[in-house]
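ok so for the tutorial part 2 we go from a plain amino acid sequence to predicted structure tokens. step 1 is just haveing the sequence, like this:
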Amino acid sequence: MSDLIISVSGLRGKVGSGLTAMLATEYASAYGTFLGGGKVIVGRDSRPSGAMLAQAVMAGLASAGCNPLDIGLAATPTCGLLVKQLGTAGGVEISASHNPSEWNGMKLFHRDGRVLNGSEAEEVKSIFESKKFAVCRWDEVGRPSRYGDPHAAHLTRVLAVVDAEAIRRRSFHVVLDSNHGVGGILGSRLLSALGCRVTALGGTPDGAFDHPPEPLPENLIAVCRAVRDSQAHIGFAQDPDADRLAIVDETGRAIGEELTITLAAHHFLAKRPGLVVVNLSTTRAVEDAAAARGSKCERTAVGEANVVERMLKKNAVLGGEGNGGVILPQVVHVRDSFSGMALILEAMALHEAPVSLLVRRLPQYFMIKDKVEVDPAKLPAVLRKLSTRQKDASPNLADGLRLDWPDRWLHVRASNTEPIARIIAEAKTEPAARELIAQARGMLGVAIVKPRTTKAKSGVKRARPVRPAKRPSRGKAAKAKR
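step 2 — the prediction. this is what the tokens look like for a chain of 482 residues:
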């Protein structure tokens, strides 16, 4: 992977070798030029390079005539919420999301609080590459200012959309693994406000990650152990900028990031039926959950901006992605781990059920993710051809190729940052999902680059059941009712 990536998701780079203060200043100048002035929020996650880059970003914005509003350490959804609530021209969140500590980046917001869509991000990129920045006179340079408590508004908004009293009555014990990211600041405040007893892991926001920052099951060993050892009701894990949420049930089992939006949808749509929007790679269990609640589900190309754009167009009541992202419009049109936590706790409280039981009530699926090296120039034509050959499947070419059968689906799409194709298959059984992966590799044919000789480079991931957990022993079941 390159040390610098500029895409529709913003800018990310390895600090020093790819991302420098000078480059951040120029990219911020391009964004300020795109905005045409006005007040712009600047927030950051807890990475060690964040404070340095914040100064560079504010300098670039000020030079383009914008007035930077520094909110300091704040989550990505908090930044988006404040952009809309304060009526600013835009916002910048300095974060590299789930990338390692040595990486950082910039995520850009529209004035309505959502991340920039593809065409808007391309316009900023074009200005950046052309170096045609707006340059102010000495007496028109923007003036930075500081915002007091960026978390209060977000806390108030989340508490207003759930039955906080019902949650408080249960006095849940929650293990929160923020992994030294920024999420622990508001996360602990929110859980305490909901009457929870909080055991915090990695609660100091210093960017010294205790484990790989992507909240995948294999990275959540510590929080799983803590839930078991402390007999907590649930465990939550956030990524560094707190827009993604993973869940650990009361038995200490990481249930998988696909089930975050699934559980949220199954619960929320019972309260407020309506449209839910997810991307093409998200588990079909969300569609099943929506149907069970008399609601509909629509799919978009992968990417938060695509999901949110459809949500706004169709007035959806909920959205998200299978990477642990929950988007609750009543709070903010951004993936938001705090909304996710509140919804899951509300589901546990109102149904008087542990997480494992809520999961067992969902449909059972197995999902497998794979990747292969491909020739990017050949892939689109190959996928178009394949879409006409699967007579028994419903094709969707909105983002690569998705093929749907009544009991399974397959999605093949090109990576935006690497010469690889991502392959995702989901079926009712693990063998059926693996068969889809094998078929996909065969179908790609001429687009696949000759594989490396070492088998250790295989991209196949262990099958993850998007399904009910095994029923705990009688002793564990008793603990779950405490």
